[in-house]
Design goal:
Length: 294
């Protein structure tokens, strides 16, 4: 039980990334059926907010790196290795791996729906990563003054849904575009992603409260590996050696980072315990001196 309690944040983040990876496949299937991306985001956040607000109503350190010790060096090295792995998956293909005899499941997708733009795409991807990182840091700061993860997740999803609604309405004026058929691919895509946004954001905030923003952010690289593997097994997409190499680098980098974080946390706890023992000893000594004085 002690081991499970110690690694509970790791398990939660691992399961969270699996759930987020599946979101990509539902989203791709919905977009291939003609669902407007802006409307999708609006419905997703609004549904998530509606799910979270009742729980929020009724239920309810910034990262330091020391480059002079092995713990800090492991965190830096792990981050760089994982970054190299994700970059390898994105930019390097290499020879294709032989396909499996048959894919497990095939999702009906329209061909020609992906438009490659090697200028706009990388720029938007980098901008997304930067804003995503800032979002994690802001959450960590907010939790110090507002330590209620369910309410925070509900507010974020609610405000996100409102912003997306305004943006979507400005771009999409046709009422028919907002109509979603019950139990269609679009319906299940919005439902699943909305539930994920509600549950997983709340779990991520809890993990951030326990382990810090860097711990949570590093698991995003694992999501990239999961998407590649699931696309190969489920959709029958081609798997390249560059993706395999990048996946191994991501896992190795994540291991180094988690090792450094774990050792650092143990060190901080021992230092805190030692300081408390000294303070208790000093108080006892002062009390003894005062008692002996006439």
């Amino acid at each position: 039980m002690a081991t499970l309690e110690r690694y509970k944040p790791h398990l939660i983040m691992f399961l969270t990334q699996i759930g987020y990876a599946i979101v990509y496949f539902f989203t791709e299937a919905a977009f291939s059926q003609g669902l407007n991306p802006h409307i999708y985001v609006t419905y997703r956040f609004c549904l998530s907010a509606c799910l979270m607000f009742p729980f929020a109503y009724f239920l309810e350190r910034m990262e330091v790196v020391n480059v002079k010790n092995p713990r800090g060096m492991a965190k830096i090295l792990g981050t760089l290795i994982s970054l190299a792995g994700v970059t390898t998956i994105t930019l390097y293909k290499g020879p294709a791996v032989q396909r499996l005899s048959a894919a497990i499941v095939h999702i009906n997708r329209h061909s020609g729906s992906v438009h490659e733009n090697w200028v706009k795409g990388p720029i938007l991807t980098v901008a997304s990563c930067i804003t995503w990182a800032i979002w994690y840091i802001l959450q960590a700061i907010t939790l110090k003054k507002y330590p209620t993860q369910v309410s925070l997740a509900a507010w974020m999803n609610g405000i996100g849904g409102a912003q997306s609604a305004v943006f979507a309405v400005c771009l999409q004026h046709k009422a028919s575009a907002w109509s979603i058929k019950m139990f269609s691919v679009n319906f299940w895509s919005i439902t699943y992603s909305g539930i994920c946004s509600a549950v997983f954001v709340c779990l991520q905030i809890w993990c951030m409260k326990e382990k810090g923003p860097v711990f949570v952010a590093m698991f995003n690289s694992l999501q990239t590996v999961m998407v590649v593997v699931l696309a190969y097994l489920v959709l029958g997409e081609r798997l390249y050696t560059g993706s395999i190499i990048g996946g191994f680098l991501v896992i190795i980098g994540l291991y180094f980072l988690l090792w450094g974080k774990d050792r650092e946390q143990s060190y901080n706890k021992s230092q805190e315990s030692h300081c408390n023992e000294i303070m208790v000893s000093d108080k006892e000594e002062m009390a003894s001196v005062e008692k002996d004085e006439p």
